[in-house]
Design goal:
There is one protein chain. The protein has one domain: 3-Layer(aba) Sandwich (Aminopeptidase), CATH 3.40.630.40. It contains 6 helices and 12 strands. A hairpin with a 2-residue loop joins β1 and β2.
Amino acid sequence: MSSVIDQSNPSVEIRHRHGQGPVVLLCEHASHHIPACYQGLGLAPAHRRSHAAWDPGARGVAVSLCEWLDAPLVASRVSRLVYDCNRPPEAETAMPARVEVIDVPGNRCLDAAERAARVEAVYRPFCDAVTGVLADRRARAIPSVLITLHSFTPSFHGERREVEIGILHDADRRLADAMLAEAHRLSHRCIRRNDPYGPEDGVTHSLKLHGIGQGIANVMIEVRNDLLATPEDQQAIAEELCRLIHPALATLGVASSLGEGAPDA
């Protein structure tokens, strides 16, 4: 299966929009790109490519899953420091002035008009793309589950994180429970529920808006980014995730078949 990519909007990428599989993939932090109009947000060059600006490796994992699961993928093409598409417009963290130890000068003292402009430029196109993909699938009577892909830094505020793969959920835990029940398939990995983040950290906005709000089973997958350093690493992790996702879909009674080149479930 070869993905058709819609990049007609500079803020959002839609890959394999008409996929027939039951999974719809989101990658809100896929890019570290900061459009020129934001003048680099006043960041040092190294910080523009750091984990503060995006989720390194997450898009690579999402693209492999898109191919293997015959799944549409909606990915942001703009750094989360411009606008974090996994946060609602009213959240301060949607346009953070500081991330861990990194100050973001271009996000200080934004007025209401500046915030609204970013919402319209980045957040609305992303949400509209997800809404459009889900609506199209409903029209074609294709069942859907929602999976969002993220990565996290191995050390946060000086503390080493042991968890390697986090399976995150909000009030709807159906898909998370089904995946965690298959964790024995990856016995070499440290896999935990709602770790390193959970609903209390404000990270489940997309799950609530596009999943729970639409009555769709949903889950967020977080992968420690030192496991995603190369394209080969990203593909290997995608293979491992397939071993959790595919049987979990069967548990939920959602028919699925792996695409060409996909690993065995």
